[in-house]
Model the fold of this input.
Amino acid sequence: MKLPPPATTGGGATSTLLDSADPIGQSLIKLISNFCFSFFVFAVLIFTVVAITYQPPDPWLSSAPALTRHFTDLIPNSTFSEDSSVLNTGEDFTTIAAPETAPLVDVNASSSLNSGINDGDDSNSSVGCGVREWGNVVNCSDPRVLVAIQRFNARVFKSILFLEYGTPVNGSKGDECDVAWRFRNKREKSWRRYRDFRRFKVRVDEESCEVKVVDASGWHSGVNARRPMGRWNATTGTRSPKVAVKEKDSEINDTIVTIGSEAAFRKGRYLYYSRGGDYCKGMNHYLWSFLCALGEAQFLNRTFVMDLSVCLARQYTPSGKDEEGKDFRFYFDFEHLKEVASIIDEGDFLRDWKKWDKNHKRKVPVRKVPTYKTTPMQLKKDKSTIVWRQFDGPEPDNYWYRVCEGKAATYIQRPWHALWKSKRLMNIVSEISGTMDWDFDAVHVVRGEKAQNKELWPHLDDDTSPDALVAKLQGVIPPWRNLYIATNEPFYNYFDKLRSHYKVHLLDDYNYLWSNTSEWYNETRSLNNGRPIEFDNYMRVEVDTEVSYRAKTRVETFYNLTKDCKDGINTC
Done:
C-alpha cells in the first residue's frame, strides 16, 4: 500500500526562512573572526613595544633561585680562583618584607601648630609664641621645634628614611637644640635601624611665631640628646649624676642559640657537616659552601649545626697567613641568621650529644654520609636524629658545595636572604657616610697585586696612576665634592693629587671607629673572650664596598677607569 506524499503546505515559506538565516549567521561568524583577529594583532603590537622598551631586572635584585642560577653559570666547575672582592649579601639584593613607614612630617605642608597662638594677650611676643622660655633660650621641647627639625632633615638628607625621633633638648647655647633619631638609608634593603644625634640652631620669628632651623652641625654633634639618664636612688629619692659613656647598640642581639633540656635535644632533627676542604679558603668560597649546607638543612627540614669559628684566608690577613679562630659574628649578622633559619652552635650541639649518650643506654640515632654523592633527595625521608655528612676525601671532593651540584641544584636553593653583613660593621658604614652628610661620590681603585701583574692586567697600573685618576674623574665628578676612595692601595699619600680637586676621604681617615676606645672594639672584644681583634682586610673591603654603594655617583675601576678585564685578559 502506497503512503500518500507529505503535505507541502507552507514548505516554501520554511525554505525561504532558512535561506535568509544562513547569510546572517555567516556574517556574524565573520564579524567575530575579524574582531578576534584585530584583538590578536593589537596584542602582538603591544607585546612588541613592551619587548623593545623593557629593561630586564638586575639578577642581584632577583629571587634566590635566580641568584643560584647566576652563580652556577659563573662557576661551572668545582674550582675557585681567589677573589678579594666582597660577595653581595642578602641586604644588597633582596627586598625584605618590612612594615611600610609613613613619613614623619609633610615637608610641603604648613604647620598648623602656628595657628591661633597669638590669641589673647601678646605683650611679650616671645612668651606669647611659647617657643622661648626666658630671654633668648629656646624651649626645645615645644612640638614646633621638632616639626621644624623634621622638615629640615627631610629637605637636606633626601637619601635617608627617618623612622623615629626623640624629644629635642637644649644644646650648649640658648638658640641650639639637640635631637636624636633612628634612620635607615634608602639604598639599604634591610629593616635595620641606625642612630644619629645632631645639634641645630633654631630661630623664632616673633611676629609670625614661625620656627626655622638656620644651621645644623655634623654627625653625632648633638651630644646632649644621647646623654643617658642617671640611675634612680631609692634611698635618697634622687637621680645620680648623668655620666657620658660610650653607647652600646642595643639592637644587636647575637647571643648563641642553645637547645635547653635533654628532651628537647632528643626531639630535634639535625644536619651536621664535619669540617671539609672549604676551611681557610677565600670568603666567597666559604659563603658559597655555607649557604649550600644551610639550603640542604632547610630542604630536609632540619636544624643546621653551625661552626661559628671561621678561618680567615691569607689574602685578608696583614700577616699573609691563614688565621683560624675568627668568629662568624665579626663579619655577618648572626641575629638575623638565627631569626630566619634554624641553627645551633656546634659546641653546644656536641656537648648535648655527648651528654645524652653518656646518660642513656639507647644512643642517638645517627646516619653517617661519607660522600657528597648521596643526594639530599635520598636523605629526605631519613628518620635519624642526626644526619652527619663527612668530608674526608681529597679536594675538590671534600668541598661542601659539591652537595648542591648536579640534580640537587634543582632542589636546593641557597638562602641568600638569610645572610647580612655585621651590624657592627654597618654602624661604621653609617658613621662614615653620616660624617659626609650622605652627600658624596665614590671611586673604587683596584691596585695591589693586580696592578703589578702586567701579564693579566697590562694597563691597570697606568690607568690608576694619580695623574690618570685626576684626568678621568674631572670629567665625571664635579670639583670639590666629597670623594670617598675605596681602594686596596697601601700608601696613604698615593691620592694626594686628587686633594687639589676634591675633598678626599679614605678609610684610614676614620680609623678611630675601630680604635681601642671605639664601640666596635669593645663589643668585638667581648665576643672574643676579652681578647682584642684586628680590623682585618676583609672588614676593610666590606666597609669600603658598603660606603661606595651609598654614593651619589660611583666610578668603578674596571669598565670605567681601565679597559682591562676584571679577571684578566680575554675574560670580559
Q: What stands out?
A: The chain has a mean pLDDT of 82. The longest strand covers residues 194-204. The two ends are 99 Å apart (CA to CA). Residues 11-53 form the longest helix (43 residues).
